[in-house]
Amino acid sequence: MPAVTYSRTRLGGVAVLLILLAHASSTEAQDAVAAADEPRASRVETAVRSLAGAALGLGIHEGGHLTFDLLLGTTPGLERVSYAGIPFFAITHDPVSPAREFTISSAGFWSQHLSSEWLLTRHPRLRYERAPLRKGMLAFNVLVSVMYAGAAIGRTGPDQRDTRGMAVSARMAEPWVAPVILAPAVLDTLRYLKPESRAARWASRAAKVGGVLLVLRARP
Fold this sequence. Notes:
mainly alpha, three-stranded antiparallel sheet, 65% helix, 8% strand
């Protein structure tokens, strides 16, 4: 099979801002009763820490792509793209084999899943902690997976999107990529809401490992 040349589309500034604002609003709604008795400075600090956690999640996602770019010997570059008037940027790389393309395109999700696993293992009762930074990071991981799953199902967005690179390199229809990235996010949300559920914990881990094993479909 010829080398695959798809680059991976990054979330543009507007899309990321919407995610961060959505999480900030959600955090405020959840803590409305407690916040009424807090000084305003404390509420502002909570919001800032939540946004910082979401920004950290974005950095982990992008870092996953760049790490595997370098590990697999490709030279990353930057390309400006847009969709529906929203600016994006794409990190490009040299033509690579299907297996390498699948790995690079998936690396952002793998990094998200790994960071969510670390969070929920070290802090299984995160829901009941006052930890806006960690909650912001987990919220980003879940929301980005949901957004990308929607793009995969609808086959919408720039041609350089992660889910298309995964689908082409693994020789599968793009809508089938959606459950691969969505299942861990849904199960991690369930783990957050019901930390006592062993079934959710192990199903989440199995879904993450299953997503990685799909690289076997991308072999020439």
